[in-house]
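Researcher: Next sequence.
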Amino acid sequence: MKKYILGITLLSIHFFSTAQTKKVVADKIIGQVGDKIVLLSDINNAIADYKRQGQEAQLPPNPECAFLEGQLIQKALVLQAEKDSLIVSEDEIEAGLDNQIRGFINAYGSREVLEEVAGRTIYQIKEDFRVAFKERKLADQMRGKILENIKISPVEVKAYYDKIPKDSLPYYESEIQINQIQSQPKASKEIEEYCIKQLYEYKRQAEAGIKKFDQLCKLYSEDPGSKDNGGQYNLNRMSKEFDPTFTSAAFRLKDGQISNVVKTKFGYHLIQMVSRAGDDAVVRHLLKIPQVTDDEIKLSINKLDSARTIIQNGYLSFGEAVDKFSDDENSKFNGGSITARDGSSFLNIDQLDKDLALSLQNLKPGDISKPNVYTDERGRKMVRIVYLKNRTQPHRENLKEDYNRVAARALEEKKRDALSKWFQEHLPTYYISIDDVYKNCGSLSDWWKYSSNSAK
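Model: Next structure:
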């Protein structure tokens, strides 16, 4: 049990099993905890989903055993959550289901295609998932309650580290920790007015039937994420992924209607409402980004050069300067830290874009680069200064340089032990039944001890 006890989320049933043309049909009960049952179809569909999505290599050994264990663990946690009167609100369930459906729509391309493939309406799909989603949230709450007071002390971290054979410690290449302040040059008023004039001309052409709006998007939009598919996006009124000004303007439109020019932090837009169903909509948009000249870029360079001088003279810390000077709203919450995809602040040099890597070449820890001009992933001209916080040498893992990493692993082990102990104490109090077909699943040995048919 200890091996998979924290893998419940990873091994939980994938919800795409409903939206498939040929669903595995097998309604035999293969496991039960209290009044919570596990069906063979749950396990078969989950494994089929992994394979269909190209994730077969991520399946654990004996996946039937692993998925069944994950489901038994989840059922036990749900049962205890109900005994402890934990609650998942209907609003939380509804919001979670809406997010799940939006994920399906994005995966399948449109609401219509999803409904066609699933053979069910959006409402029916949501209802199919409601019980499973509520159980997953209850299990998460119960797991959080069990582990909420689990902490790790420096003494425990050292004891954990000392148990690791020295030749098994990971080896790290040179890594860096960096922070940045970004400035986005602002286009002149004349160029902005020219972009607006262009957009109104495109709107005239679309409304006059000279060109279809999706064709105009393909020809002229500067949004690389939607240009090739005619500017189309699936939009939800409550989504945080889109600029709120964009969302608000879109939901004021009727089907087929094209907006006036809308300004957001990304540029200027024309928005067309394709179709709408409640808080969900399909829209198209044509984006124009006003181009900046060397004069505007120079203003941003001077701004960040002043910020650099202020930091170096000790009037502001780098984090304080981020809050004062950065045009990136997200960076103001983390002091401008650049992080890896896993959230780590330690980066390998090959994880950086070419311009950023070049700006660090001659910096020592504590240095701040001069302002550098670069082009971001959306094609915008930007200016930044970079603070090299730390640079490690290639080394074998040690507590001095890698304490946080070791502490994170030690804490996870302590949580696994705590959960394992909790299950050892609670399994005898539940009614448990497992199909004899799974008698040889070694990972289920703790469950078999208390199974009602263990003597068979």
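Model: Residues 399-426 form the longest helix (28 residues). The two ends are 22 Å apart (CA to CA).
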